[in-house]
Amino acid sequence: MTKQLSNLPVVVTGADGFLGSHMVKALLNQGFEVLKVSRSEGFDVCSKESLQKLPPFGSLIHLAAQTFVPDSYTHPDAFFFTNIVGTLNCLELCKKNKASIVFASSYVYGPPQYLPVNESHPVNSWNPYATSKIIGEQLCTSYSKEFNIPAGIMRIFNIFGPQQKLSSLIPKSLMELLKEILPLSQIILKEILFISMML
Prior knowledge:
By secondary structure, the chain is of the alpha/beta class. The chain has two domains: 10-157, NAD(P)-binding Rossmann-like Domain (Rossmann fold); 161-199, no CATH class. The chain contains seven helices and seven strands. It has a five-stranded parallel sheet with strand order 2-1-3-4-5, with helices on both faces. Strands 6-7 form a two-stranded parallel sheet. Helix 4 (76-97) runs parallel beside helix 5 (128-147). The longest helix is centred in the middle third of the chain and has 22 residues, at 76-97. The chain is globular and about 45 Å long.
């Protein structure tokens, strides 16, 4: 990521989360002015009213989301509301500010039809979480086409690093391996990405 051309700040949603906290730190280290959007800062991406309190900005990195896939089956309404309405509110805010958006999507391909999986692979809504991310991508594409909002989509998944919840895939697998709950023979190799390599 390089220094922005304008003097306007960057908004980071989900600024207190695993990805968001690292993103904020990386942006600040590179001299960006950052506006943190999180509930602890008095913002809620699902509330248009709370987002209206933000001053003008030049770009928005949308990381706020419900992400724990098993919960998307028990509470699909919360996932769809947060991940779709929250994204729509961010896009409306970018339209108002004539700002760009970077949307954090995820693994949206389902069981692979071929390997290695690339961005040309067909998408497949194989769980409620993936469905919410596919709809988020479609919203970004629509706003880019219809309202000239510069939009980038990052399909990031299997990220690991400091401050990550122990219930996440990589920390959980490592803990089970250390406790000999998960035999080494059952480890399935996947593409993984250390957090600093994403920034």
